[in-house]
């Protein structure tokens, strides 16, 4: 029995033959409740009519090219209605259109399960529908935990609830742990873990705000010192804010902290996100070059998402490139991402940069990205961010 057999599905398709064919595929995979519409207007009418009943539409399978209202405009109307169900798009169009439309859906917060080429393959349809449950069950990594309010966050920040978490990085060639990325996390008294995007804006409301970065670096260097003492060779990556690239006092504090823990600079990689703008390139070049001259490694983080990716590579002395997870998550289904990622590997090799893939969530993505020639994997498949204690357990086990 298909676990989705009771889902209410709406098929939006103008060609009668195609419509019948999709309905028959849906029935063959066990779907019992199917309604049809032959254009966007009819579909919206159907959704609105059922909205207040307990029979609302939960999944829409929609053609992109239709008369009156095409599938792309239809998606905007869905977003306006805050449609909470899932969507699968059907098309005979090429991958650049599918990729743009998928990005648009994401920006509209529409839950797009994926796209299917016509004629529809019922096994692929079934596997896309399988993601409905997968998405529901997936532990959320970006929302605020249930029941947490702002005052809980402020309380935790004022009471030393800020911790470094560590996500392991693995070598593609022998699958060993080669590094850890330190990530700032707020841990509430009941153990709930909160991501930086939910608490950074609260810093200016604290009683005595200290630089959260230095708190995280200190904990990270402390762990690295412990691992060096245990003779566990590992590289540590830390995130460095673009807003600090004109701040030499902060630079000095960083270097002094590494000295305090007697950390060899070669074992530290400073990740700089290209998402944020660099105010004064002259000062940034000076500061980052001084890091490199003193032996620290430099990584361009979230590569491909900034406004001047190539310019940054030309200007700044990086020796590692980290491809943003938005190009990696779902790469196994997306020819556009494959082309972008594969040519980025070529670029990295030509520039003599190590290349890291962030956002590897499946074995299929691992295999594909490994074959392209990536050096290092960081992703939920190989490990989520861990507390310091759990990171030590992982590394000591791997060392045996
Ligand atoms: O700073 P950087 O962009 O490197 O931050 C890494 C962030 O990406 C962390 O918050 C981490 O939890 C998240 N992350 C790491 N691996 C994955 C993954 O496989 N999938 C998703 N969705 N997020 C990931
Ligand atoms: Mn990072």
Task: Set out the fold topology.
Blueprint: E1 8-12, H1 16-28, E2 33-37, H2 40-51, E3 59-63, H3 71-80, E4 86-91, H4 95-107, E5 111-117, H5 122-137, H6 150-158, E6 162-171, E7 177-187, E8 193-194, H7 212-229, E9 235-240, H8 248-260, E10 268-273, H9 281-293, E11 297-303, H10 309-315, E12 320-323, H11 325-328, H12 335-350, E13 354-358, H13 363-372, E14 376-378, H14 388-399
Parallel strand pairs: 1-2, 1-3, 3-4, 4-5, 7-9, 9-10, 10-11, 11-12, 12-13, 13-14
Antiparallel strand pairs: 6-7, 6-14, 7-8
The structure holds guanosine-5'-monophosphate (G) and manganese (II) ion (MN).
Manganese (II) ion binds near residues 181, 239, 271 and 301.
Walk me through what this model shows.
It is a single chain. The protein is α/β, with parallel strands linked by helices and 400 residues long. 42% of the residues lie in helices and 20% in strands. It has helices spanning 16-28, 40-51, 71-80, 95-107, 122-137, 150-158, 212-229, 248-260, 281-293, 309-315, 325-328, 335-350, 363-372, 388-399, and strands spanning 8-12, 33-37, 59-63, 86-91, 111-117, 162-171, 177-187, 193-194, 235-240, 268-273, 297-303, 320-323, 354-358, 376-378. An eight-stranded mixed barrel has the order 6-7-9-10-11-12-13-14, surrounded by six helices. The protein has a five-stranded parallel beta sheet with strand order 2-1-3-4-5, sandwiched between helices. The longest helix has 18 residues, at 212-229. It starts with 7 loop residues before the first strand and ends with a helix. Residues 181, 239, 271, 301 line the site of manganese (II) ion.
